[in-house]
Structure formats: C-alpha cells, structure tokens
Model the fold of this input.
Amino acid sequence: MGKKTSTAMMRIAIAGAGGFASLLAQELSRGAYAILVLSTRAHPEFESSYDCQVAVVDYTNLEDLQFVLQGVDLVISTISGAEQLNLIDAARRARVRCFVPSEFEGAINRRPPAGADPFDNDSSTALEQLRHWSQSRQHSMKYTVFSCGVFYERFAPGGLREYNMGITCRIRDQGDYMIDIGDGRAEIPEANPQGRPVYIVMTSAVDVARFVAAAVELGIDTWPREFRMRGTRLTTLRLQEICSEVRGVQFEVITRPYDEIEQWLRYYEQNGDQARWYYMQHLLQTANGRYTFGETNLNDAVEVQPTSFRQWLYDTWGPAQ
Done:
C-alpha cells in the first residue's frame, strides 16, 4: 500500500456538471481540497457557489484532458459512455492516483454480464479498463466503485429531471420507475425468479454525496474496490405501502408476476415500443436483484446518518392535499 496522502493536499476533479456533480462539489468544498470541475461548457455558478475551478474540456481530445488532469489525485466521474472511457485513459496518462467511475447504482456483482446488460452504456468496458490499469506494473491507477442502489430522487415530483440527473438512464421523469406518487399509481414486480419478495436498496443523492465526501476523509489509499452504502432497504411492496401511508391515499397498484414481465418485454420488442420496453426492463432488473445488496461497508466506516425513505418522502411530498 502506498503512502497515505494528506487530504488537505488533495486535488479532486469532478467530471460533469449536472445535478449530482453539483451535490458532490457542494459536499467536497466543505473540506480543504482543491476542486476542479470538468465540463463541456462554462459553469460560473460552480465557481461562485463552491469556490472551485471549472475547466471547459473536449472529451474527445485526450491530450487536452491529460493536461487538465496533471497534478490531480482523485477523479470522480458523473459522465458515461465514450466520454468516460476517454477520461479514464487521460487520467491514467496524467498519473491520477484513484478513479471513481460513474457507477452510482446497485452492487457490481448484481448486474448482468457484459453484453447482456440493457443499461450498460460502456459501463462494462470502463470497469474492464479500470481493472486493467489498476494492475499495471507501471503507473497503476486505483479505482473504487460507490454502490448506493436507487436514488430516492427517482420518486420526486418531476423525477430525476428536476434535479438535472439521469440523462442517460431513460427514466428521468416522474412515474418512469415503478411508482408515480403524485398520481397515486404503482406498477411493481411481484416476486423474483425464485418466487421470493423483491428487495431494493435506495439512498438519497444528497446522502450519496455526503458519503463520498466522508470516504475521501478516510484517505483514498485505504479504499476498497467497492464501497456499499444505503439509506433504506425494503421490498417493492413495502415501498408502495410507505408511499400510500405518507400521502394518506390509497394507491392504484399493479403487481406483475415475473413471467408476465418477460412476456410484456417480448411484446414491446416485437412492436417496437422502445419506451415501454425500457420501462418493463427496469422492472425486470429490479426483480432480478440488480438494486439490492445485504451488507454495507461504508455506513459504519463514516459518520453519516442517511435520511430514511419515509422521512425523505414526507419532506419531499408530504400528505396529499
């Protein structure tokens, strides 16, 4: 293990300038770090609000990326696809010490294998690149994945779009994922392939940013390959019940058996209904356990008390008028 770097000396680059990047900048700016935000356009609000520097970059230009990343200790990515792949390459060339990929969802071992993941968006390629460079004999670059399950904000008024998040996940709007709290409707998977209740791990995006910032305080040399955190773990049925209880209204609920979800997927694929296919695919992935895990290793390691889903729901929606 290498020498631990004083966190006060660290330079941290956040790739992306969306809603989650803003939360990360807000939390990290509370520490004595030099914060650099990478974006494809200027964001003066970051500089004025979080006392950080914004660098306008072209993710297709590796030389420029490498130059911008010189002297950076830690890169936290909130971008995906080809842009992230180029960022990984540039970070390795710039001898960045640790890379956090944009993998803020379920645990790595709960996802479909490479080539079979409908939501991959070059995620498997990025992780393979990071594994390769972490084992390099010359200028190896560590990486750590932060797994948090589903953001609470998927269930917020207006959905992820209202927080400027979820651009590539195809479920940005209110009601795009299982439950429309405003309309009092739910469509949930009834059971997993083994016939057991479907569990889901969830965390507020605000708390995920707090967890990441607290983990940085531990020192990046101590980080494992994966940090797991959670705000709440419950069944999809209980999730719908809590929504109904907090709102004080009876929800219209459709429970989909596993084989019925598979049948609907085939139907939507045959009929070219891409929007409904992706919607149903999210139900299938949830039923397959993509967004659940048991033990966490970050909750007990840092002093962050995450908000429960019930409390978040009450603060965000409250009882129906």
Remarks:
- Residues 205-218 form the longest helix (14 residues).
